[in-house]
Amino acid sequence: MIKQSKNPNATANYKISGPDAKITDGVLRSDRFKDIYFSSENGLAEARHVFVEGTNLAALLNSNDHLVIAETGFGTGLNFLAVMDLVEKSATNCTIDYISFEAYPLDKELAFEARKPFSELQRNSILLKKLWPEHWACTHHRLFLQDRIHLHLHYGDALLEMKQLNFKANIWFLDGFSPAKNKELWTENIFTQISRLSASKATIASFSVAALVKDGLRKVGFKIEKKRGFGKKREMLTGYYTAGLPRYYSHSDKKVIIIGAGIAGASIAHGLRATNIAHIVVEASETIASGASGNPVGLQGPQLMAAPHPSMQMSLACFSYARELAFQHGVVLHKGLISLHYPEKQGKRQRKMAEQEWPNELVEEADARQLSQIANLAIEQDGFFQSAGQLIDPSKFTKKMLDGSEVLLGVSISSLVKTKGRWELTTTAGSILTATDIVLCIGAGLPKFLEKFSLPSLNLQVTSGQLSFLPKNTTLNNLSVGLQFGGYLTPMINGKQVLGASFDLSATTQVTQRGHNYNISLLPDALQKQILDTYQLQGRVSKRLASQDRWPLVGDWHDTIHLFSALGSRGLTNAPLLGLILARKIAHRPPGLEKNIMKIIDPHRFAIRATRTKSRRKSI
Hints:
Structural class: alpha/beta
Oligomer: single chain
Largest sheet: 9 strands, mixed
Strand content: 25-35%
Number of strands: 29
Distance between the termini: 58 Å
């Protein structure tokens, strides 16, 4: 129906290749690497012998509250399932961050088929299939076993990804294809990164006893020995890291107060539950999601760009997580989004993207006739169809994300002081709340809060956005998917068709005719004509907060006060994962996003840039 643009001279390729794998004689093989994924004798027994037993995992689970397991080569996910199985069968309370790298991800159906012989893993194998990520070149995050295991799955070149990460692994599974057939995963540079990313006494295991593996690991600080291999393979490698520092991990005394119960507050609450940190949510309003998070409908889709940028990688990772979470919570209202080559600025950017290679579910080029068929509405512009995009119920999503967290409504903060290492917050009702950490999720209220309590300020912009609710008697009601064009238009959902959103520098909270007129003006001319001047439109207004560069503010700000704000128009897409990332940072766990992404969301980035600029000027 729709053809994807395929230009051999494209300036960028955002597709990620598969391994050209197939099952032959009951064994999964990669044609690309001419190698098998696991032993033809018994892949699960091999995973247990080489990696689980080879790294002493069972004992480490019983002697640690938290472990970081890192793996080169996710493959079918069999090692991951073997770890899950051991955790389930153990009496341990240990939590795990499982960090894996995969350059050529398998199709979920093929990976599941390859795991079928291991019937004892069937339940978790089905779950892994359900949560298996799309083939998008980013980091995919998934939670398992009631959040006890956090999977960080990096799709892309392992060396490039490792260089952008900061974590200290307690355990390494080296499980790429054999060094003779997949040299990229067994280089000196890879071993150097493994060393940098290892905690003291980190254990390591590999099926390979090739000299370059033994020598490479010894050179970077591992004590290596050969042990009996699995099945017909005589030997395997195990060892431990002799350098490095112990990894600090302790959050038993942590208690966090979250101020704000919109999508940001709900997302950090979700993240803190997932990292088992005590917390309470305080909201000045009498309702959850009283601001933009209470809109009747919202879009979930990534911010794509023609030129590579960390913000796009962040957006893809966030979309992967938020999209799956929305499915789990049953808040998806409509699937699929159309993005028109309109207005001219957006059209120019998207036409450039059309010359590049993208996953079909993110960018599928279509002409006006094809889009009209998809939309069930006459459209005069060409554009993209994004089958992965969706419309969700923001209020329901926010409330679902707060399930399991204590929320105090109608409570404002009148004083804030730190005494003996803990914050004391006095409420307007006279009660006192204490915490080790505070997360500010108050959106447009952030500038006044910082000023009121004499906290360091930021250059922030407060605006308002108005939605217009269209009447039920126009041809626009026939729209069957979300439509983007500089603004956005939704199908009729629960009796409302939403057109948005204005950008008002006055930050008014009143629904105005000027706001309606602005929203209508965003529509392509032919669609504007469907809305008559005589219509009396209803609407909804909420305030918004933006940083100087329009990227979010996520991270430490002052002492143990953290910011989680300025999420902009993509809060429903970006907030869930960014909340989890911030919670992991508070818990001293690996955050799970690359350093170049963490830099662009760091609230201190403006001061850092200013210092660098000043330093450069002095050197001239």
